[in-house]
């Protein structure tokens, strides 16, 4: 360890020895405790000062011996110790201050002082214990780890705040001095003005000297800063007032020289200050002054601003080139860390300025180039990121500017094409220098520049400067080719090849040739390029371009070929295809790659054939003989034969080409076949071409041996057969139809003949004959119909299916041919019947005849054929029946043959039902049953009502008998299949139809309708007797009960036709009958049998329905009100009677609750009856009903819900009592004149009602609920009282509301100790307080809105609000609630304040401040004294303060006057000082920011105003004085600003206490 560390340890040891001796003296009671604390504090202060002095001496010694070099090990350890000692000294000072305050408190005793003293000693005792940790941290700091930013101590924060205040004061004084220097102030001459301004700097320098002697370092530094900054102001003033002559004045020619000389003077002074104080601020000021001095000097020696910036760029080059020498200069040691950063910043700012000051001359271009070189040097030499981007941008811009402003502009496109080459060369140079990353960046830049140049070159096409564009694109192509070869990146070869081809295109544009010739030349070049670069390119270096050439050249050839095709230049198209065919052939021979060989294998024959095809339009355009003698079909057939010949030609040497040529020939023959209709040929020639095509297709079958090739043989054979129609030219229509219809049988026989040689050929012709027959069926049918030919011609179609069905060996073929034959049989029958004129229902009769013939065949066939026929016969019969029904619905039944028609339809329906039953398709009987239902429903519409009833009854009985015979329920399980009883369903449908017939009939009586409707429930009762399943029986019972609504409705309708009394008697009798039946057959509404099925009592339900209809009868009858009341009361009586008939307890309980709910209707009737009385009698009547409900509730219930074994019972008496009370309060008729006191009394009954109900209740929780309801519903009487007070005189209404408030306060004080009370009844709310506040608010609202009143009444009403909260606080015991009420009192005190202010006359300029300033006081008081939540309240306070200051700033900006600026400046100055003294960050920051913003916004507009610069100078001086005072006090007795304020406040308090 060095000597300093030994000395430090000596100080530590001395302090420890002294502390031990002092502890011994106190423990032995040799000194009092007050002396012990005082001596300990004094020694601690002495120890800290000694450590501070030692540290300062060591720092000065280190600077003088070692310069700026430091040793990591011990120096790091020492710095850490120093920082810890400073922190401990601050904690000691704080603890000493705490001990002083504790000693001054007489009630504190010795224990707190002892603990405070021990705490004050802990940091010092821990210093030695932390030394090993400090050494470890120093060792760790030897590693290059980023240091953690230490947290600022409170003392450091205070020092920072003092610095901010000083800096703000300096700014204010500086602006004040500047305004004073540049405005016309007084009648002083120029010399005196400059002398006075210079004296300001001298005065501040002297003050700085005095402050340094007083050890006020920050104040001294602030004054020295002011003195230094007033020096350039003095020089500026001297220039402004022309002290040095006109040449060196502010507008003279030598102002640059004056600025240079003044800058050198200021630079010397600032460097000296920076070296003395080691201040970063003066270091930056010195650097900035150096830059300004250079600008002034260069501006003096250069003729224009462009030359000046060029000189600045050269100066920057010199600085960058000699930066290491500058850093090694001893005189610049202080500036060493900032030299390079300064040069960087300087270059960036100057570049930005140059770019904004655009000029159009050569010097400006050179300047840009020089500055781009600066960015390149920084990027390459100093390895800084992103500077290469700046170089690229600035260099490109400078180069473009150079081109535009020099002789090179004539060759602009070529010049721009050199930019990517320059970047490529730079990238190659950096790559050789092993700067790979930077080289890659410039390579990317060169590619980007290439893209931009490419776009620009193509955009310049409109100038038609094709030669320059050609050269530029060739340069780009060469550059991209070079980059791709260097990087071995094949992706760059694609744009290189494209640009190369595009350059050739522009070259051809420059030549005097046509566009068609250009395309031809370009196509030839692509062919050569394909051959040379792709096929015959074997060089290992240039093989990189093969893939791109393979992709691009064919694409360009394809585009050119498309253009030629669109222009219909057939010779060129044919030649191009021929060349492409040759390329494919050469590729097939030379290229060994699999994909290309496969492509050439197909491409060569196809393009060869297409070339021959494309040659035909050229021949027809050139030779008339070809156009007249060789139609397209013949030419295509010739090309097809050439293709077949080429297939045999290449078969020996290139056997793989044979099938492709063969396929091509076959396709061409097919195209020749298609083109025949478009040629002008005679039928024989066309048949010959088709015959050749058929032969070629047959040859292809023989060659390829594939079944699929029989398809074109069949197609061409069919075409050949069709062409013979024109060859023979039949004269008779019969022969023509016969030729058409014999075609399928011809193909059928031809297939049979081919079957001897080829089975597949037979199948193709067999199915082709059937497809043709499917086409011949509708065609032949229509031809025979329209030409009225013999139906015997249609036999050929039927015979094909007969032969096919009989000869078929596959099952599905038998089915298909049989069903198709039956369909053709129907058409054959229709052809025979259609000519009979007397038959009307032709389709139905044909369907019947066809079904009869099929039935005969079915009867004569064996079992297998029967099975096949039944699948067709069953749906055919049903379709025939459906068509018959449809025709009957359209045309009606046949005249005089209705019975025959019904009989035939019945036979068909029975036969269809028989077939379904024979096949055991029992679920499908619904189809014939449904058709029968539709048919008989149509039939009964033609009969009289009695016959219709008989027919429908017979049908229903038949369905019932079938159901009883075949089924025992709706669903029968037969093995794994479920069968549905459709007979029951259709029996019900017949019954419904019967009811509908009676209902729609005009001759039926009401009694008959009731009788028929009663059959509906009877039907379901009978179905239940036929059923053996219990669940289904129960369902039938339920349906019978539901469907009983039909007779019920009929009875209701019948009763409504009678007089009202008779109607009510009938309905009452029905209801009584239902009740008697219910009493006889059931003992409850629901009944559960042994199997778990629940059945209900329909008698009770229908009895209720009859009762409801009774009430509906008298609902609108106003003549019989007592009868209406009686009938309404029957509802409640009905459910009470049901309760007496019920045995189960739960159901009895349900009936009771339903009776309570249903009683709402008689309640409404009673209320309506009361409305018919007078107002007072109506109210008394309703009050009596409510009282009766309350008495009944008290007699039978002790709560709203009564719990019993069977469930819960609701106290309906309470509910209806409340409803009667609400009916009383629902308003009074406008015709009645009642006093408002009666209205208030009725409204207060709501509160009294719930108080009485609460007293009747035993449950504690329910009592609490009633308390809450009482408080909430009391809003209504509160509102009534408010409305009553509004009708009185202002003073009387205010007195009434004040009386109500006083009553609420007294009740609250008597029954509650807080807003919320937790007791046995749960959480209770003190509604008295709430309503007291509401009455108070209503009082203020009446005073404000009630018209003109005395201002004293308005002030008193406003003051009652905070007084109310203070009074409530006195009756409250909870601490949090007391705080909340105090906060409310403080917050609501703003209202009386604003009311009082509103009564005063305040200048408009102070209105906003008077309104906002109390918000600062209130918010700070609430957040600092009442609700103290740490940082949360600080954040809230900061937000409020910032918003309030923002409002003040907006107001000042809106006024924009001198007084607004002075007021906001004064307020912000006070806020800044208040925040500094009280350590309130929000006020300090907001005040400081507002001061600076105010100076920034208003200095320009108020430059010459004396009050403004007086404010700046006085404010700045005040800030500096206060900061200096606290700094001096800190240096003197080491106390904080808060301690100084507390001491002064205590002195003032003692001074006032001495007064009598």
TrEMBL record:
The UniProt keyword set, sorted, is: Membrane, Transmembrane, Transmembrane helix
The record lists the membrane-crossing segments as 162-185, 191-211, 223-244, 256-274, 281-301, 307-326, 338-356, 362-380, 411-430, 442-460, 466-485, 548-565, 571-589, 601-620, 632-650, 657-678, 684-701, 708-724, 730-751, 763-786, 792-808, 815-833, 839-860, 872-893, 899-916, 923-939, 945-962, 983-1000, 1006-1023, 1035-1054, 1060-1078, 1090-1108, 1120-1138, 1150-1169, 1175-1192, 1212-1228, 1234-1253, 1265-1285, 1291-1307, 1328-1345, 1351-1368, 1380-1397, 1435-1452, 1458-1476, 1509-1528
Q: What is this protein called?
A: DUF2157 domain-containing protein
Report the source organism. Peribacillus simplex
């Amino acid at each position: 360890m060095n000597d300093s560390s030994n000395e430090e340890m000596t100080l530590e040891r001395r302090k420890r020895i002294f502390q031990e001796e002092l502890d011994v003296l106190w423990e032995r009671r040799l000194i009092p405790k007050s002396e012990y604390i005082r001596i300990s504090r004094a020694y601690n202060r002495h120890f800290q000062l000694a450590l501070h002095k030692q540290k300062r001496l060591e720092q000065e010694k280190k600077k003088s011996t070692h310069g700026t070099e430091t040793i990591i090990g011990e120096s790091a350890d020492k710095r850490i110790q120093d920082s810890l000692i400073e922190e401990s000294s601050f904690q000691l000072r704080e603890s000493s201050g705490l001990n002083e305050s504790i000693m001054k408190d007489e009630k504190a005793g010795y224990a707190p002082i002892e603990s405070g003293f021990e705490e004050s000693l802990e940091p010092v005792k821990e210093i030695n214990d932390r030394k090993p940790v400090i050494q470890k941290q120093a060792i760790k700091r030897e590693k290059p780890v980023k240091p953690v930013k230490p947290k600022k101590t409170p003392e450091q924060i205070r020092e920072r705040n003092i610095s901010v205040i000083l800096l703000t004061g300096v700014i204010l004084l500086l602006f004040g001095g500047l305004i004073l220097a540049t405005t016309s102030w007084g009648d002083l001459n120029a010399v005196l003005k400059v002398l006075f301004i210079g004296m300001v700097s001298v005065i501040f320098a002297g003050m700085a000297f005095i402050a340094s002697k007083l050890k006020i370092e920050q104040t001294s530094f602030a004054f020295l800063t002011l003195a230094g900054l007033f020096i350039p102001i003095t020089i500026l003033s001297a220039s402004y007032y022309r002290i040095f002559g006109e040449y060196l004045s502010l507008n003279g020619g030598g102002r640059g020289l004056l600025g240079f000389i003044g800058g050198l003077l200021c630079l010397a002074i600032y460097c000296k200050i920076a070296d003395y104080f080691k201040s970063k601020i003066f270091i930056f000021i010195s650097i900035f002054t150096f830059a300004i001095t250079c600008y002034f000097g260069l501006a003096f020696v250069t003729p224009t601003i462009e030359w000046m910036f060029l000189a600045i760029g050269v100066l920057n080059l010199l600085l960058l080139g000699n930066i290491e020498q500058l850093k090694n200069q001893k005189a610049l040691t202080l500036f060493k860390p900032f030299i390079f950063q300064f040069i960087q910043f300087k270059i960036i700012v100057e570049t930005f300025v140059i770019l904004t000051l655009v000029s159009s001359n050569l010097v400006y271009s050179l300047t840009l180039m020089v500055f781009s070189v600066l960015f390149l040097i920084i990027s390459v030499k100093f390895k800084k990121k992103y500077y290469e981007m700046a170089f690229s941008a600035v260099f490109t811009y400078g180069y473009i500017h150079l081109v535009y402003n020099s002789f090179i502009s004539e060759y602009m496109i070529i010049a721009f094409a050199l930019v990517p080459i320059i970047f490529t060369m730079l990238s190659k140079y950096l790559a050789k220098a092993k700067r790979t990353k930077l080289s890659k960046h410039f390579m990317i830049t060169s590619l980007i520049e290439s893209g931009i140049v490419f776009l620009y070159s193509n955009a310049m096409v409109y100038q038609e400067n094709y030669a320059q564009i050609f050269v530029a694109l060739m340069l780009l192509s060469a550059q991209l080719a070079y980059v791709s070869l260097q990087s071995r990146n094949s992706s760059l070869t694609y744009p290189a090849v494209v640009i190369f081809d595009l350059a050739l295109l522009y070259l051809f544009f420059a030549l005097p040739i046509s566009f068609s010739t250009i395309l031809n030349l370009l196509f030839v070049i692509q062919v050569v390029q394909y051959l040379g670069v792709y096929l015959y390119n074997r060089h290992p270096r240039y093989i990189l371009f093969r893939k791109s050439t393979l992709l691009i050249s064919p694409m360009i050839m394809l585009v050119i070929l498309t253009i030629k095709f669109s222009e219909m230049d057939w010779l060129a198209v044919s030649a191009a295809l021929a060349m492409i065919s040759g390329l494919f052939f050469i590729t097939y021979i030379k290229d060994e790659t699999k994909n290309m060989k496969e492509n050439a294998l197909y491409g060569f024959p196809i393009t060869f054939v297409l070339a021959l095809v494309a040659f035909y339009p050229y021949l027809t355009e050139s030779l008339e003989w070809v156009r007249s003698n060789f139609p397209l079909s013949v030419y295509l057939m010739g090309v097809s034969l050439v293709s077949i010949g080429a297939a045999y030609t290449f078969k020996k040497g290139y056997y793989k080409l044979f099938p492709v040529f063969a396929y091509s020939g076959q396709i061409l023959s097919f195209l020749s076949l298609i083109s025949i209709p478009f040629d002008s040929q005679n039928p024989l020639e066309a048949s010959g071409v088709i015959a050749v095509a058929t032969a070629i297709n047959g040859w292809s079958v023989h060659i390829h041996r594939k079944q699929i090739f029989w398809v074109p043989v069949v197609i061409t054979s069919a075409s050949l057969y069709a062409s013979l129609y024109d060859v023979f030219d039949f004269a008779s229509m019969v022969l023509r139809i016969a030729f058409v219809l014999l075609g399928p049988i011809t193909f059928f026989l031809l297939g049979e003949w081919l079957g001897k040689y080829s089975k597949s050929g037979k199948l193709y012709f067999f199915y082709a004959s059937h497809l043709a027959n499917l086409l011949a069926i509708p065609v032949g049918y229509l031809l025979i119909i329209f030409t009225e030919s013999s139906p015997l011609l249609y036999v050929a179609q039927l015979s094909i299916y007969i032969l096919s069905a009989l000869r078929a060996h596959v099952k599905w073929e038998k089915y298909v041919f049989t069903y198709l034959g039956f369909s053709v049989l129907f058409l054959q029958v229709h052809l025979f019947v259609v000519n009979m004129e007397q038959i009307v229902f032709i389709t139905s009769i044909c369907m019947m005849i066809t079904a009869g013939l099929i039935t005969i065949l079915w009867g004569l066939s064996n079992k297998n054929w029967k099975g096949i026929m039944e699948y067709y016969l069953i749906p055919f019969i049903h379709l025939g029946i459906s068509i018959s029904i449809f025709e009957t619905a359209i045309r009606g039944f046949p005249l005089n043959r209705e019975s025959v028609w019904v009989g035939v339809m019945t036979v068909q329906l029975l036969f269809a039902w028989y077939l379904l039953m024979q096949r055991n398709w029992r679920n499908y009987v619904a189809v014939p049953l449904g058709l029968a239902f539709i048919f008989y429903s149509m039939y009964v519409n033609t009969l009289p009502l009695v016959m219709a009833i008989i027919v429908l009854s017979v049908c229903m009985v038949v369905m019932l008998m079938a159901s009883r015979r075949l089924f025992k329920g709706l669903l029968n399980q037969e093995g794994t299949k479920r069968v549905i009883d459709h007979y029951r369903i259709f029996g019900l449908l017949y019954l419904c139809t019967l009811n509908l017939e009676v209902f729609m009939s005009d001759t039926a009586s009401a009694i008959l309708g009731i009788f028929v409707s009663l059959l509906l429930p009877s039907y379901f009762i009978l179905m239940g007797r036929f059923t053996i399943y219990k669940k289904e029986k129960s369902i039938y019972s339920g349906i019978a009960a539901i469907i009983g609504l039909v007779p019920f409705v009929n009875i209701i309708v019948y009763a409504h036709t009678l007089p009202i009394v008779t109607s009510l008697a009938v309905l009452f009798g029905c209801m009584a009958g239902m009740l008697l039946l219910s009493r006889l057959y059931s003992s409850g509404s629901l009944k559960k049998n042994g199997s778990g099925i629940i059945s209900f009592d329909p008698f009770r339900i229908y009895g209720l329905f009859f009762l409801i209809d009774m009430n509906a009868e008298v609902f609108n009858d106003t003549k019989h009100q007592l009868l209406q009341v009686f009938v309404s009361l029957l509802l409640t009586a009905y459910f009470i009677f049901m309760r007496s008939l019920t045995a189960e307890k739960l159901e009895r309980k349900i009936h009771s609750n339903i009776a309570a709910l249903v009683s709402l209707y008689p309640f409404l009737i009673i209320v309506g009856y009361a409305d018919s009385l007078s107002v007072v009698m109506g109210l008394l009547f309703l009050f009596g009903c409510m009282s009766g409900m309350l008495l009944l509730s008290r007699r039978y219930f002790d709560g709203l819900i009564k719990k019993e074994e069977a469930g819960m019972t609701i106290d309906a008496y309470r509910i209806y009592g409340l409803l009667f009370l609400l009916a009383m309060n629902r308003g009074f008729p406008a015709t009645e004149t009642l006093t408002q006191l009666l209205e208030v009394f009725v409204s207060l009954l709501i509160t009294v009602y719930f108080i009485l109900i609460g007293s009747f209740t035993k449950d504690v929780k329910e009592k609490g609920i009633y308390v809450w309801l009482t408080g909430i519903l009391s809003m209504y009487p509160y509102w009534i009282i408010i409305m009553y007070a509004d009708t009185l005189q202002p003073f009387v209404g205010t007195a009434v509301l004040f009386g109500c408030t006083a009553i609420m306060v007294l009740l609250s004080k008597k029954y509650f100790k807080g807003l919320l009370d937790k007791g046995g009844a749960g959480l209770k709310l003190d509604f008295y307080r709430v309503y007291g506040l509401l009455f108070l608010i209503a009082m203020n609202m009446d005073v404000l809105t009630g018209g003109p009143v005395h201002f004293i009444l308005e002030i008193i009403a406003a003051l009652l609000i905070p007084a109310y909260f203070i009074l409530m606080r006195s009756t409250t015991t909870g601490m949090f609630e007391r705080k909340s009420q105090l906060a409310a009192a403080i917050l609501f005190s703003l209202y009386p304040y604003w009311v009082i202010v509103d009564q005063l006359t305040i200048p408009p300029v102070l209105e906003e401040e008077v309104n906002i300033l109390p918000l600062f006081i209130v918010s700070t008081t609430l957040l600092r004294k009442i609700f103290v939540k740490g940082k949360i309240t600080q954040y809230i306070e900061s937000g409020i303060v910032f918003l309030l200051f923002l409002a003040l700033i907006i107001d000042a900006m809106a006024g924009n006057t001198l007084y607004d600026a002075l007021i906001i400046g004064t307020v912000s100055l006070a806020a800044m000082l208040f925040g500094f003294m009280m350590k309130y960050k929000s006020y300090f920051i907001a005040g400081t920011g507002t001061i600076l913003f105010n100076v920034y916004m208003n200095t320009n507009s108020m430059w010459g105003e004396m009050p403004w610069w007086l404010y700046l100078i006085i404010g700045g001086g005040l800030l500096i004085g206060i900061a200096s005072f606290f700094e001096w006090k800190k240096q003197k007795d080491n106390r904080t600003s808060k301690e100084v304020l507390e001491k002064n406040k205590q002195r003032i308090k003692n001074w006032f206490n001495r007064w009598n």
